[in-house]
Amino acid sequence: MTDREQYTPGPARGAQVRKDGEKWTLILVRDLRHSPEKVWQALTDPAHLREWAPFEADGSLGTVGSTVKLTTVGAPTPHVTETRVTRADAPQALEYNWGDHDMRWELQAFPGGTRLTLWTNIGRRFIAMGAAGWHICFDVLERLIAAEPIGRIVGSAAMKFGWQQLNAEYAKQFGMETPDWPSQKGGTN
Amino acid sequence: MKIKVTSLYVHDQDQALRFYTEVLGFAKKTDFSQGPYRWLTVASPEEPDGTELQLALNNNPAAKTYQQAMFQQRQPAAMFFTDDVKGDYERIKARGAEFTMPPTDVTGSTIAMLNDTCGNLIQLTQLAKYSH
Fold it and tell me: Which of A59, A75, A172, A182 could form a disulfide with B37 if both were Cys (CB 3.0 to 4.6 A apart)?
């Protein structure tokens, strides 16, 4: 079996939700055993993003003020949004938007690694889905930075790698009802 | 092959979901998001596994131009069939919808037209029944 076939996500962990009025924010934290410089490259370079992120970028996200087109990968119909990078303090802080989602990344060095934190606003009913999707993306990111890439796992591909289970676990952790989609009959594991 | 889903552009998916469920009386079928992309469909409670109507966010300038032009020409963006157009007209009107055409006899059917508040005109159609 290849490394990709062997991949399974661990249990739901490292995610919190915050509610300010009607605005919900998903906060994801992941400790990576790599330098902030390496993590920064994976977050900003289109060739690296292609290996793990849920979107394609047509330019670098590493320059403040630049405009980049982000194409959602795996959407049933083509979906492109234009973003402007509003903060790019390499290798510490990165901010842009993905459609109506604000994306704020923080890279905090610790001995032997980087604590990566993502804040993103997302509708309440989609928070567990988002946490599950980003969980798998972060796993793939971790392997990419370790120079053991297993290839992007987003959209329907994530269904084959335990996304439904994660979705249910995060919903439970957040004290929310398990989303009713996808239906049981559509699952593959 | 089957015709399983048909799509309608709407300028606000939350507003559309409210209108198509609470005002028109359809039921939410699928609501799934992948990043900023949201796949949202409704179905008729009379036919829960029937054709779904996708309420797609209209963030496409070409589609917006088309949608506005069709609206101005009073062309319906979708057509729903009913066995009781007058009853539906009264029911939907009572829930606050604006009709641009009350039930009107035309060739072979009775039709009514309403504004879905999301950029579209919707036609309700009741086919005339002829005796042999």
Answer: A75
